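Progress note, project year one: complex with NAI.
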Amino acid sequence: MQTSFQAVGVVGAGAMGRGIAQIAAQTGCPVWLFDQQADAVARAQQEVGAQWDRLVEKGRMDAASAQACKQRLHAAGSLDDLAGCDLVIEAVVERLEVKQALFSQLEGIVAADAVLASNTSSLSITAIGAGLRHPQRLAGYHFFNPVPLMKVVEVIAGLRSDSAVCDRLAQFARQMGHTPVQAQDTPGFIVNHAGRGFNTEALRIVSEGICDFATVDRILRDQVGFKLGPFELMDLTGLDVSHPVMEAVYRQYYDEPRYRPTVITAQRLAGHVLGRKTGAGFYRYADGKPELPP
Ligand code: NAI
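Model obtained:
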């Protein structure tokens, strides 16, 4: 398949970066994955490799394709290894100054016409691109967790993004088997704006003592029909990701009371009780399965 990009760089090999690297490699593009943590890329390669093996076992991918995908997923030892990429997608920590500094550094490495994309959940694309020499080449590219299964991606144009860049990203999303949705550069875009009603109100129900969190989950999952309840979802995402998103949307809307985060998630974040990734969040995950705390 002729893809919109010839070589893809992914920065950040956490939950999102590894999923994006997986689906990008499946298009046939070589992918270069970089993380500032020394062993993160090797772990990601191992985990994504195991995903491809599982697809082979289930008969959804042939063994030769899985092998070819593994060979296309390269470990980058430094950002300089991304020099030949015509698309670089960042999925690093949700902090404006970190993303700004990363893209400024990348501008000195990649070609002048390479496209830069941010997987930010809630930060302004216009603000992320503010210090760039070529801000028109930056757009938001917001995937969802787990990336291979959640087949939607928001394509977000900042005030200075080139519409042709957004079109190429949308086309590449389709080539990865995802459905692109155009969103304006507003706090939380579409999904994390709508998600305030889901997460923030659920937290408020619990903080007002209306019922416990497991009851909220059970009703919204089993009766209303969501795949996961809000507390299960926060545990899956991790409060190190979810809480900053709540704060970012609240602040960007000038402290709009509707979006005010609760102390429930702030406390857990401070105590490093983050969700599945730390073995305990709202639920405990002794064997990977959620259990209610005693
Ligand atoms: P994560 O914590 O699993 O992974 C982040 C990775 O980035 C870590 O391995 C870390 O070492 C690396 N990193 C941090 N700063 C770096 C830098 N300057 N250079 C290179 N590597 C760096 O986080 P996750 O969940 O993958 O989220 C990443 C981004 O994706 C965030 O912006 C988040 O808001 C966004 N996002 C997260 C979703 C989720 O459900 N987890 C969903 C959609 C977007």
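Residues 11-17, 35-37, 40, 91-94, 98, 102, 119-121, 142-145, 237-238, 241 surround NAI (CB under 6 Å).
The chain has a mean pLDDT of 96.
No further modelling is planned for this target in the current period.
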